[in-house]
Automatic annotation (TrEMBL):
This is RrF2 family transcriptional regulator. PROSITE patterns: HTH_RRF2_1 (PS01332), HTH_RRF2_2 (PS51197). It comes from Robertmurraya beringensis. Pfam families: Rrf2. Gene3D superfamilies: Winged helix-like DNA-binding domain superfamily/Winged helix DNA-binding domain (1.10.10.10). Transmembrane segments: none annotated. It comes from the Bacteria. Keywords: DNA-binding.
Length: 151
């Protein structure tokens, strides 16, 4: 899985809007805070609006506002709708499965499936509120790194 600039910038924009939850923020202000051009941001914000994350307001005091509570915006969902499957390889994808030449004896598929499941687990546990509150940390376990939400 590779997050494109579209996914990265969408999360940046959501963070800006989340920091000012309940307030309409102009596209220029979002651009200034995210360092994303207004023209590219327009495309991203329109997509987020169509997906039900944002509302837009027209006029001199126009801009964008979150349509959902920050705790109800799941990062895994946002990434999937903008970027597609989380799997690093098609043979491990659940939604866009593509067989490889070595199947069914491929010894790498379990690794790619584990990577997919780990990415999905972390992203699906995270909300916009968690990011805003800086509550996501990696906690080293006995045998592997485990995701932990701190308070």
């Amino acid at each position: 899985m590779k997050v494109s600039s579209k996914g990265e910038y969408a999360l940046r924009a959501l963070l800006v809007l989340g920091e000012h939850h309940g307030r309409v923020i102009s596209i220029q202000e979002i651009s200034d805070k995210t360092l994303v051009t207004v023209s590219y941001l327009e495309q991203i914000l329109l997509k987020l609006k169509k997906l039900g994350y944002l509302e837009s307001k027209r006029g001199t005091n126009g801009g964008y506002i979150l349509k959902r509570e920050t705790r109800d915006i799941n990062i895994g969902e946002v990434i999937r709708v903008l970027e597609g499957p989380l799997s690093p390889m098609g043979c491990a994808s659940i939604t866009k499965y593509e067989p490889c030449q070595l199947e069914p004896s491929c010894q790498l598929k379990p690794l790619w499936s584990l990577v997919r499941d780990t990415i999905a687990y972390v992203l699906d546990q995270a909300t916009l509120e968690d990011l805003l509150e800086n509550r996501l940390t990696l906690n080293k376990g006995d045998d592997f790194l485990a995701f932990k939400r701190t308070n």
